Amino acid sequence: MEAATAEPVGVVAPRATPTDVVGLGRRRALGFVAPAFALIGVFLIFPALWTLYIGATNFRLTGTAARSPDFVGLDNYRHALEDPSFYRSLWLTVIFVLGSAVIGQNGLGFALAWVLRGVRRWVRRSVETLVLLAWILPSSVVAFLWIAMLDRDGGTVNAVLGNTPGVAWLIEYPMAGIVVFNIWRGTAFSMMLYSAALSSVPPSQLETARLAGASDAQTLRDVVFPHIRRYALTNTLLITLWTFNDFTPFLITAGGPNHRSEILPVYLFNTAIIGGEMGYSGAISLIVLLINLVLALVYLRAGRRRPA
Amino acid sequence: MTVMLAVVRRIGFYVAIGFATAFFAIPLLWLLSAPFDDPPTYAVRLPRHFSVENFAEIARNRYAVPALVNSLLLAIGTMAVVVAAAALAAYALSRVRVPGRDALLYVLLLLSSVVTGTAAMVPIFLLMFQLNLIDSRFGVVLVLSGGLLPAAIFLLKDFIDTIPRSYEESARVFGASPLQILRHIVVPVARPGLATIAVWTIVQVWGSFLTPFILLRDQGKQPAAVLVRTFYTEGGSPNLGLLAAFSLLYSIPVVVMYLLAWSRYGFRFHGGIKS
Asked: Do B124 and A47 touch (CB under 8 A)?
């Protein structure tokens, strides 16, 4: 009966055992899974499905539409597709994801993993610890660390650059601010993943490349890259999914000034929770859900093709 | 000539490492120095006047200590719900074969990474609004549990699958009931797995911002994650001393738990699990 379902990655292979070893019984087994499945059903699956309905109404938090929302069909989607503020937000999200995750975290994570192989153990440990700390500290704390860094009058960045009067970085370059922040915040994952990936490159091949007089760039391209290509794909998909859903930039710029760093998660918050336009935000949520689903499915496919 | 080149390259190499280290270290240094400075500034610097007065501020603030208690309540509450519900479900799923079980688990795991806090913000807010669970810490515990459970069940089931069934079979021969078997045999053997899930849940909840932020309006009920933001966004110039000391105090448990998990189990790579 196991063979009927596709065997997912990472699941222990089914052993030839009878259906119910410890005499739990179907009914009791059902009782055991019920609490967990009820919670998942109500707080994970139902909200996702309900989004379909909310997005098709004119639900608002206040006024008459709050008590009896009307069904408006695809109006919200039409509205979104005609709304320049939605496009602006989508575009800012693309810049944020590409700049901070796909290029920034990927690039810096790989560079660190590559460079740290060749240094003394204590140097490696110290750098890794710092990078990991940036990753594990609570988001509202690290957000303020960067607000302080980039402050116009007392910030460390202006002090180091000797800017007097200082540059108000988060007002003049809000997108660059949150991109740099997110590189700092999230590089740890890519670094750890790439150091694991790099240990799968056979040292003998690196040695051969060195003896053959290959330059670093040639070694990376011809020896290292073929080994870590799949890891790179997996990593890129995961950090894209996370960065796309990351709400932390809200803590730094709140989407401002004047919507200039209003990436989709912040846009959703501002239209839904602040603006109270639930129907319209429901439609945007569904778009976000679908993008997430596509990313996750591509991730699964990429994972499944990896040789075990 | 080649020696020169090698030396230059070596120097360049260490300069690059130095820059990367500075990039990661400098923002963190504020968290170490500012809490002990009187008064601290935005800039990273050694404390001019070393003092622990900022920590006394925490005790004097109306919301600071309650916020830490709220964080603890949310973390412990969610941990209890997740560990209990996941253990029961994972055990049943591990020991009773149901067709399509693994596919179902996989779909749930997929869903939990697709239905993120951001994507579900609107329906979750409306749901809690209509259930009258806005401003309820219990409501936040339920929402967070729903999001964490799929991964917890998945990890625990993998763990329980590796426990041999022979103990349970012999206990059954001696007439133990399934709940007794679970309590006296499975739970003790599965303790490391349960502990991992417990620590993982606490770390996730301790740092989570968005869900409590949208669901808890009453400042007296908000956890530390939300209060830290209030400290630096609420009117006028923030009280940096209080903010710095409180941030440090609030951050320490997460770091300690990571160190604990690290020293005990080594660095485990939970790819795709950190949400």
From this structure: yes
| Closest residue in chain B to residue A189, using alpha carbons only | B271
Cis? peptide before A47, omega within 30° of 0: no
**In B, which residues are within 8 Å of A247 by CB distance?**
117-118, 209-210
A213 to chain B, any CB pair closer than 8 A? The answer is no
Q: Averaged in consecutive runs of 10 residues, what is the pLDDT profile of chain B (275 residues)?
A: 82 90 95 90 86 89 94 97 95 85 88 91 93 94 96 91 85 84 87 90 94 94 95 85 94 90 60 37
Q: What is the interface pTM, i.e. ipTM, of the complex?
A: 0.90
* Centroid of chain to Cα A43: 21
Q: Name residues 155-184 of chain B within 8 A of A (Cβ).
A: 158, 161-162, 165, 168-169, 172, 178, 181
CA distance A87 to chain B (A): 17
Q: A20 - beta bridge partners?
A: B96
Amino acid at position A212, single letter: A
In 10 A of CB A76, how many CB atoms? 25
How many angstroms separate the CA atoms of B195 and B205, rounded? 15
Domain ranges of chain B: 2-51, 62-265
Q: What is the DSSP string of B117-166?
A: TTTTHHHHHHHHHHTT-TT-HHHHHHHHHHHHHHHHHHHHHHHHHTS-SH
pTM here is 0.89
Q: Is the dihedral of CA B253, B257, B258, B262 positive or negative?
A: positive
Of B91, B115, B145, the CB nearest to A32: B91
Range 181-200 of B in CB contact (< 8 A) with A: 181
For chain A, how many residues are written? Answer: 308
- Which stretch of DSSP H or E encloses residue A255? none
B252 touches chain A (CB under 8 A): no
Structure tokens, A288: 């976000």
Determine the Cα angle at A258 with ends A255 and A263, to 5°: 30
Q: Do A210 and A219 touch, CB atoms closer than 8 A?
A: yes
Query: CA-CA distance, A267 to A91, in Å (whole number)?
Result: 12
10 Å CB burial of residue B48 (0-12, 13-18, 19+) is exposed
Q: B62-265 — its CATH code?
A: 1.10.3720.10
Test mutation, B14, B109, B114, chain A, max A CBs within 10 A: B114
Residues with Cβ within 8 Å of residue B157, at least 6 apart in sequence: B90, B93, B94, B105
The CATH fold assigned to A83-304 is MetI-like fold (1.10.3720)
